[in-house]
Amino acid sequence: MKRKVTSLLLCLFIVFYALSQTKTSIEITPNHSDWTYKVGEPVLFNVSLKGVSGESYSIQYQLGPEKMPFTKSDFFITDKTDFVIEGGTMNTPGFLRCQVSFMENKKRFTSTVTAAFDPEEINPTVKNPSDFNTFWKKTISKAREIPLDKQFTELKDKSTAQYTVYQVSYQNHDYKNRSYAILTIPKKEGRFPAVIRLPGAGVHPLGGNLKMAEKDIITLDVYIHPFPMTWERSFYDSLKNSPYIDYKFWGVNNRETHYYKRVITGCVKAVDVIYSLPQFDGENLAAWGSSQGGALSIITTSLDKRIKWLAVLCPAMCDYTGYLYNRAGGWPHYFDKDNIEIYNKKEILKTLSYYDVVNFARMISVPGFYSWGFNDAATPPTSFYAAYNVIKAPKKVFVIPEGFHKIYTEQLEKTNSWILQMFQENRK
Description:
By secondary structure, the chain is an alpha/beta fold. The chain has two domains: 21-121, Immunoglobulin-like (Sandwich); 132-427, Alpha/Beta hydrolase fold, catalytic domain (Rossmann fold, 3-Layer(aba) Sandwich). The chain contains eleven helices and 17 strands.
């Protein structure tokens, strides 16, 4: 009898422990498995409360186009943990966001999901300047008048028996203005394909594309700021707490002074660095990046036709002016409610049209791999579909509907696999 009581108590302990370890959360799922709808088609949001302990709940929900003020806000009381919210529909292509919240043990829990409505019918709002191509041809041509003057510093702590890692620096768009990158080169004899990876936003240093380096691929990770990457980490940490973190807003009053001008010329001259390497096979070159890096990969590929393949994850800098047309615009959100009073000026609108990814995307002519999630609030899908939809070259897309603004393991694996497959097929 004593053994049975002990066993019963143990079972009860396990049950209560398991319950205590269940995290309280809200799970929301649109009723279409791909989270995609036709314009005018209603969406239902299936909601499930997880790890809750009460008998009834006050549910608040809000609906509206992503990044815009909610068009509907309501609440109701329920004793159910699974219920449905009618989301309505959209009358134009775009993304509808549903936010649900409730209180549990004096703590508020919130979850958000985003349903797509004919996303491949989204058209850009940004204007394309008549001299867009001329401006960038002249800009790149002038930058290339400055010799590369490459300088290599081996990073012995990163190098392996298979590849050597360097910091490479090179002159950018004018003398004494240098760009920096992390370069890996296979140690064995031969000539190899190459991958240029463009960075996400921020000021932190890069570590190198070592996963691809292991495949006997030359890799070049470009750093967009004018600082070596070999300094003490404390230096870059100090940049994050300085005005430098706002670099993306600098110089927007004129196309010649925008911070991204030197960024873009530095990315294009990174292609020159690859082509100057005797170990490069002279043909197989891919560019890829995520967020800001996704934007820069489109921009660089559009400006240098020697890049043969393009991989883009959740690109930023797309269709900035979306906010001026009552829909989400691209990072860094020059015209959202926090910034519109500062940046909604004629000269700034003109400048940004020369730096909007949509206008570079029009010039893409090579196969591309594209991936993103619908729940991305940093680079809203409305904005990047505006760029994606103007690309006429072959496109392969991998959508993670529930995905937020991050690189998922599956995305990274698929990106690398696709690039390696393109290399292999081209070398047959």
